[in-house]
Amino acid sequence: xxxxxxxxSTHSCPSYWYWCRDHYSIKTASGMSVVMACSVKIRxxxxxxxxxxxxxxxxxxxxxxxxxxxxNESAIVRGQRINPQKLANDLKHMTxxxxxxxxxEQTERIIGCVQTGIVSKTIVGPLSxxxxxxxxxxxxxxxxxxxxxxxxxxxxxDFCFARGxxxxxxxxxxxxxxxxxxxxxxxxxxLPSMSFPARNVIPAGGEELLIDCNFVRMSKTMTRSNLHDExxxx
Length: 234
Ligand SMILES: CC(C)(COP(=O)(O)OP(=O)(O)OC[C@H]1O[C@@H](n2cnc3c(N)ncnc32)[C@H](O)[C@@H]1OP(=O)(O)O)[C@@H](O)C(=O)NCCC(=O)NCCS
What we know:
CATH class of the largest domain: Alpha Beta
Low-confidence stretches: 1-28, 32-36
Largest sheet: 7 strands, mixed
Number of strands: 12
Number of helices: 5
Bound molecules: coenzyme A
Helix content: 10-25%
Strand content: 35-45%
Strand order of the largest sheet: 4-6-7-8-9-12-10
Radius of gyration: 19 Å
CATH architecture of the largest domain: 3-Layer(aba) Sandwich
């Protein structure tokens, strides 16, 4: 997909020049308007590629546990969110979608990811019907706040709907008011009866829980009408 950004002369140099710099073009000769074309593609992770797996691990750990994204877990959990073993296990039954930008003629750079697929349970408990799952959702801080997260979430919903999901679910730490508000805007509702203490999960992998809180399940009913035209390139 090509995204065009219009910038007029009253704005300073936009931060998205950094991540789009290989793809921008000047539209007018007057200097009053700039049009940039930048291409973010969503596709499945190449699970055979150790380089791609490493890029996902680095991005997820930096996004969740660093303090650079507009929303993150750095004040809630310390330690690595994901490691090579956990990712390998997850990839046995889940798919990781990645957001990539071109980085040269033949190569792509991973700038974000989301883990998705059909599940019958989540951390907070079993599901009455299999549902589409959202997890390990991250966009590198250099690229955050520019719509890549939206594209990944949309692609994961489309991916699961195409595989029969009538509902999307995710587990969110209940102290994350900012991201829960965004998920609300995207149609997700918190299920008040579905809650599980984070301290029962998080110390397991060498992580440290800094705030006592709970995982809660958020859920969205999927219908054809809430699909996106953001078709997956895979
Ligand atoms: C969550 C995350 C994936 C979002 O990615 P992103 O590329 O920044 O997301 P987008 O640019 O598509 O923006 C998503 C929404 O956040 C909003 N947003 C952007 N900056 C914001 C800010 N500073 N404060 C509040 N909302 C903000 C956008 O307006 C947009 O809302 P809209 O769809 O209603 O317009 C990314 O911030 C991240 O990796 N965070 C750390 C990992 C994490 O917390 N994952 C989720 C676990 S539940």
